[in-house]
């Protein structure tokens, strides 16, 4: 689940890792330089994936280049056999997102193509959000590298279920409710907004904005919010003033998250699409 610190991984290995495990998949998180290096040197993984280098955690690392350097420390493994890198890593190598093409995302699902061994293959996933194609693409490349048959990969992609709080469809009637509470970066959030824009009905956004980034990221987000929604419910004090300044739609500010259910009942109606976008602790 959300175990991505050195001590969290140690605890997980000691308490949960079965002796017959063939593949152990670990997320390496970081708030300081060398956090990922410590994990990489401890695990010495054979395979590493480094995803897109965005502006998440800019508050801790100050610059995107510092974030890039911190994440690329994942490659400091003595047993490294293979790595898959997003083009934003700027590492001199082939990038997994260059194998991806023809992404088509709608509220009905996701279609895309992936290049494997110079051949192009079609995939469909019953998931929302174009950004999911990038995550699935690198998983397809990894599965292919591990020798899994293409027919099994295709079937697995088709049968993928939404991760909890990641563009998870909670209901379609009487209100179309989508839970995207764990999506907290500009690219992912903005793509989910563009997806909601295709809904033929009233669209309501519930969000605290983006946490732990500079004001410019939230200002850009507000521009997209204004184009994609009809009403906004702001759920956190941390960005409240900024969001109120740049959102041109009707909005309501939640002062106590415990009253969110009553607020939703008051401000939404049957037939609305409601997107829960990002989440923030109550103290924010």
Largest sheet: 6 strands, mixed
Strand arrangement in the largest pleated sheet? 6-7-11-8-9-10
Mean pLDDT: 92
**Helix and strand element order:** HHEHHEEEEHHEEHEHEHEHE
Strand content: 15-25%
- pLDDT < 50 stretches: none
Helix-strand category: alpha/beta
The termini sit apart by 23 Å
Strand tally is 11
The gross shape turns out to be: globular
Work out the helix count: 10
Rg is: 20 Å
Share of helical residues: 25-40%
Molecular structure report:
The chain is of the alpha/beta class and 284 residues long. The chain is 34% helix and 20% strand. It has helices spanning 6-16, 35-43, 58-61, 64-72, 131-145, 150-158, 186-196, 215-228, 240-246, 260-267, and strands at residues 47-50, 82-85, 100-106, 109-116, 119-125, 168-171, 176-180, 203-207, 231-234, 250-253, 273-277. The strands form three sheets. The protein has a six-stranded mixed sheet, covered by helices on one side. α8 links the parallel β8 and β9. The longest helix is centred in the middle third of the chain and has 15 residues, at 131-145.
Descriptive key words:
284 residues, alpha/beta, single chain, 11 strands, globular, 10 helices, three-stranded antiparallel β-sheet
What layout of secondary structure does this protein have?
Elements: H1 6-16, H2 35-43, E1 47-50, H3 58-61, H4 64-72, E2 82-85, E3 100-106, E4 109-116, E5 119-125, H5 131-145, H6 150-158, E6 168-171, E7 176-180, H7 186-196, E8 203-207, H8 215-228, E9 231-234, H9 240-246, E10 250-253, H10 260-267, E11 273-277
Parallel strand pairs: 1-2, 7-11, 8-9, 8-11, 9-10
Antiparallel strand pairs: 3-4, 4-5, 6-7
Helix pairs in contact: 7-8
